[in-house]
């Protein structure tokens, strides 16, 4: 049942399965009057290596993203393409958090619109499904077989679930479906909060603001000797009531995450 406004249905794939998410792929379709009228698809070069466990799910490798744009460029293009349309995703909070972290890292613009969530709508309107994972719903609804766990393909599957939910709800009102999703999900609402900083760690804020390298005395505790790590801070954030530093390790060139409670001291790097 066609909705009364244009909707962008989007899906993301990530380079990691745990910790802070790193955007790897964006796929989206624009649906108007029940028809797909446009699509958006891009791989993204993340600042971290792709986990083997993540590749096992979506099949994307480091070789695939060798010429892909960085997250800032990809997000800027995606936001311009979305315009003022509302968004829709399967488990919208996940995708909003992925976009929120990349906004925090890069400052790239992100869409301001709310998300319809097909997980929440499916639980309400397709209660008989064995579960409400996207692949399960596709099997339950006898949708055409095809690729899963790639962004553009999953965006199309999510659209078909959305259409089924609208049909069962007997509505063409996007506003009515949005209300059925409960508390509105927006990317702005999923931007990570600021880290809680003890006074001894406040030099990290200055280093992040000024683009300075620092040396961390990390770990150790009561019984061990802390490691000396030279890093370039990239992001300070709080998640699940714990505060973290995301920083480039200057020895390996890799982006790593450090728990602030384990940082004993912050110093200027040795010359």
Automatic annotation (TrEMBL):
Q: Which GO terms describe its cellular component?
A: cytosol
One function term, GO molecular function aspect: DNA binding
Q: What is this protein called?
A: DNA polymerase III PolC-type
* Enzyme Commission code(s) on record: 2.7.7.7
**Gene symbol?**
polC_1
Kindly report, in one word, the top-level EC class recorded for this enzyme: transferase
Highest taxon in the source lineage: Bacteria
- Tell me the ranges covered by the Exonuclease domain, including all copies: 6-171
Key words of the record: Nucleotidyltransferase, Transferase
Which SMART domains does the UniProt entry name for this protein?
Answer: EXOIII
Q: What is this protein's function per UniProt?
A: DNA polymerase III is a complex, multichain enzyme responsible for most of the replicative synthesis in bacteria. The epsilon subunit contain the editing function and is a proofreading 3'-5' exonuclease.
Q: Which InterPro entries match?
A: DnaQ (IPR006054), Ribonucl_H (IPR013520), RNaseH-like_sf (IPR012337), RNaseH_sf (IPR036397), WYL_dom (IPR026881)
Q: How does it assemble?
A: DNA polymerase III contains a core (composed of alpha, epsilon and theta chains) that associates with a tau subunit. This core dimerizes to form the POLIII' complex. PolIII' associates with the gamma complex (composed of gamma, delta, delta', psi and chi chains) and with the beta chain to form the complete DNA polymerase III complex.
Q: Which Pfam families match?
A: RNase_T (PF00929), WYL (PF13280)
Q: Alphabetically, which GO biological process terms does the record hold?
A: DNA replication proofreading
